[in-house]
Structure of Methyltransferase domain-containing protein:
Amino acid sequence: MHHEWQSSDYGRHEGPEVVRKDGSTVIDCNVCGFKHVVPLPSKAELMRFYKEEFYQVGKPDYLSLNKEDQAWRAIEYKDRFQAVAGFLPDDLPRSVLDIGCGPGDFLEVGRKLGWDCLGVEPSPDAAAFTRSRGVEVVNAMFDKQLAATLDKVSFIHMSEVLEHIPDPKDLLELAFDLLLPGGLLCLSVPNDFNPLQRAFCSETGAEKWWVVPSHHLNYFDFDSLEGLLQRVGLTVKERGTNFPMELFLLMGQDYTTDGVLGRNLHNKRKHLDEMLAKHEPEARVNLYKSLAGVGFGRLAIVFAQKS
């Protein structure tokens, strides 16, 4: 079924219907080049949600559980800094802006690596957590007004941000303007409607559990994410990913409705990453690059450069 929707905030959107859930419709939008929810929430609704509810209601245990995962996350975040350093011209400063920095894990890694770090985070709780770690953070939504007050940087990072934003292209255009020539943008989003998810749903008839319209407005894969970056004028340099959690589903471990099992399996993938990072770090990086090349991995991570 073809679906059309239009609003004064976001213009016209149209494309085939992919799935309906919780009163919303996900379409494969011909205008945007990626799947997203319609109708989209107003900007005022979105600001209220991320300031008042995202961590407090939607993820009440996130900041406390985050401490258990900091060392593991640091492995992946170091990979991202190393990838950027490999593409960054020598004459550019090592300055990073993390948009939607959450509890500040990425910036903490960057600071230890000698980068000049700044975060932007709309949640007061997460911003306070970041600030308590000695990392500079602006507690606000990243928008045109805020962007006008910020200095240009050589590296902009957004980890699990674009899926929550009703106008990703506008956000990326603001980020593009803040990048120095030769600078890098790293985007990380859930890799959704991926082959492993599709296989599990086809085999079992399970509903598309990753579709959560109240939190995730947009649904990307590697190709649609790279297409969006190219449309804002960036050159894609590299793909990456992390462990494809959906492999557990195809092994008979259905964590989608069992939070305890999900946490146990999460700890198993953490152990894998930690062992490889300790003993075979290059093999680990190459493994995830290879998986990204065929569209596997829980996250789609893409690095792109400004000319």
The mean pLDDT is 94.
